[in-house]
Amino acid sequence: NTQSISYARLSLFEAETAGDHDLVVSSSLTLAGSLASAGDNEAALDILSQASRESDGLLAAEVEFQRGAVLGRMGDFGRALESYEAALPIFILHDDLESVVMALQNSGLVHLHRGDLTLARQSFEEALHYEGLIESAIWAASTIHNLGMVAAYSGDVPEALRLLTEAESRHVALTGSAAEIQVGHCEVLLSAGLFREALTLASDITETLRTSGLGEDEAEARLVGAQAALLAGDVDSALRWADIAAQMFKRQRREVWAAGARLVGIQAQYEAGMINAELMADARKIAETHESEGQLIPALNARLTAGRMGLDLGLFETARADLDRVSRKKVGPVELRLQSRLAGALLRLSEGDLSGADAAARAGMALLDDYQAALGATDIRSGVERHGAALGELGLRLALDSGKPRRVFAWMERTRARALRHRPVTPVDDRAQAADLAELRRVSGELRSAEGDSARDLSRQERAIQESIRNRGRIARGAGSNTSTTIPGLVDTLKGRTLVEFASLDDRLWAVVVRNGRFSLTELGSEPSVLTELESLRFTMRRLARQRGNTSTDLAQQVAARLDEMLFGKLNSGSGPLVIVPTPVLHSMPWAALPTCEGRAFTVAPSAELWWRSARRRRRSGSVVVAAGPDLAHAGHEAAEVADIYSGVEPIDSDGATVERLRTVLERATTGHIACHARFEVDNPMFSSLRLTDGDLNVYDLERMRRVPDLVVLSACDSGFSDAHPGEELMGLSSALLSLGAKSLVASVGLVPDSEATREIMVGLHRGLISGLGPGEALKRARDPLRHTTAGYIAAASFVCIGAG
């Protein structure tokens, strides 16, 4: 940019020296554009004002257009629109179709920022008409991107991602990079609740733009990165990114954008517990700044922040005024409509209308349910759940304040595993997706043994293929409808079982116990203390699993006893079969290690509703599939022994256990047993996988199956592990199988030794199953005799029955 500015100044000097007025204006336009790209918008406007006095006709229209572009970047949308509207008829008169396209594009962006989606779409579609006349590939790509943003602002995430992906592919083909337009993609990822992915993309874009010298675009990337960090729970990064973005916008004289960055900083401070009247006043001023420029969505966001702070400070009249404005907004992206419901609930709560607040919160959760049902991709269904976290917290708080166990239980269920109610919408015969998955297996397999430059090249290929797979899956639409259980139906189905459902609020754990038709509510204590002990137990058990010999398990048993006291010590959980519904972060608990769960059948479920649905379904009759993966010493013996239990079953050995063969035979089976390595991908749970002969079978491979067995046994490390951060849905192999229709799953939540003990548990499990026992009871009987050795203790503690027992 510095070099561009220098050349433009030199060109202007030469034009002025020559006395060529047209050339002076053209050089001024070039200089203004270079200054604006570098962030010096005030200087650009000064240059354009001078040029305006020396131009007429088409050149005057070009000056007006450039002025509109600079004003739009500054956030002065009203004046920007006036400039575009003044330039457009002159461009049409002179048949300057490329300039017509640019004016329509920029006018559409102004309408988009002001929230007028109808006018924005009209402008972009008219631009597409003119682009067809001039056959401009780059402008067509930009218009497709902008229509994607209209879809995003309308709340249509699948269509937005389809259009944005197409636009970025076109940009890369034409220019080699799509960084300048990918900020919009980040915004859509935020709308879809994919905060960590958005943060990663924003970081990549920022680095690309920084090295390219595109200061204005870099500032916008840093702003969306700050929003992503805040929503992902990384308050420190959000504050840092927001401060840098605000400083960059300020240097560029883009006050409206700077206000947006300051708001993210205020929200980050609020999340960190900093609340005072000064911050509230700043949030209100920012709302007014956005309102003055017609930017409705950021204005409402600022009003909601100010209103929540006002309630916390006891400034109820001021808070109600802000919340009332937000509660009136009923259309737009789903996160905005959820904010509207949240504002309405908070407004009623501040007025003492507890039932009204509860009703508003329930309405918000119902809206989220309907929206999830319309989505086809698992990761987006799970992601948008996070936008309902504040509503769920409010509803649960009201329920806990009431002290009514049934009401608390109902709110626990409203915040649990809604994404798993719907089968993913993945075409089973999608050849492009199948080809990508096959190529991913090849590249990932080569990457395991690659080094140096080869490893780096393969890593880039792997990321590109994964992105292609994700993007294709995310454009699918759902057609589901929401159903929910009733409490009488649940109680009847439990029969002699005891159900314990946990919940977390304000770092405190609570539990509702449903036993013999009665509901009881208990506050358990500190959640951070439980999570510290859980981390200690998992670490200790993993260390024991890696050691040879009969090492003492005393330390693990001591930690397990402390955890048991924290979670079950105050509860009357009886002695019969147990159904456990953990909080998302407690799904990694090795429940069988806890004394309360030893010696009794139990099952773990993401929600009571999911357990209820699974328990009511009859098991189908059909075939049994047994397979062994590579690189496990005992897997082949285990598979052979399990297969011998069932008449006529031939095990698939490690040479024949390919992804496509296993998928094919599992579709026809009612029971599947797979002994193999498993890998849980923390950063992208959809690529969690089972290692087979020709590569990894991941969640996307599972979602291409027409049906899955009623019972799936995964004799593999971490095969039952599911990842969840606060406010997030569960994702991983186990949750994928349940959403696809598996009735029960037996899997591990930790590292298990490749040992005789694991083989004995698996063989004992299947012997119990063939004798007529349910999976939970069969697993209990299989693990009970093995706890006296280290390997037996670890294997017995790690395997759990998930779903219906």
Report on the architecture of this protein.
This protein is α/β, with parallel strands linked by helices and 805 residues long. Helix content is 62%, strand content 9%. The strands form three sheets. The chain has a five-stranded mixed sheet with strand order 3-2-1-4-5, sandwiched between helices. A five-stranded mixed sheet has the order 6-7-11-12-13, with helices on both faces. Strand 1 and strand 2 form a beta hairpin. Helix 6 packs parallel to helix 8, helix 7 packs antiparallel against helix 8 and helix 16 (296-313) packs antiparallel against helix 17 (316-327). It is globular. The model is unreliable at 724-729 (pLDDT under 50).
How do the helices and strands line up, and which of them pair or pack?
Blueprint lengths: L1 H17 L2 H17 L3 H12 L4 H18 L2 H17 L3 H17 L3 H18 L2 H17 L3 H19 L6 H10 L3 H18 L2 H17 L3 H17 L3 H17 L5 H16 L3 H18 L2 H12 L6 H17 L3 H20 L4 H7 L4 H14 L2 H10 L16 H17 L4 H23 L12 H8 L3 E8 L2 E8 L2 E9 H20 L7 H15 L9 E4 L20 E3 L3 H9 L6 E6 L6 H11 L13 H9 L1 E7 L2 E2 L9 E4 L2 E4 H5 L7 E5 L17 H7 L4 E5 L7 H15 L4 H9 L6 H9 E5 L2
Parallel strand pairs: 1-4, 4-5, 6-7, 7-11, 11-12
Antiparallel strand pairs: 1-2, 2-3, 8-9, 9-10, 12-13
Helix pairs in contact: 1-2, 2-3, 2-4, 3-4, 4-5, 4-6, 5-6, 6-7, 6-8, 7-8, 8-9, 9-10, 10-11, 10-12, 11-12, 12-13, 12-14, 13-14, 14-15, 14-16, 15-16, 16-17, 16-18, 17-18, 18-19, 19-20, 19-21, 21-22, 23-24, 25-28, 26-27, 29-33, 33-34, 33-35
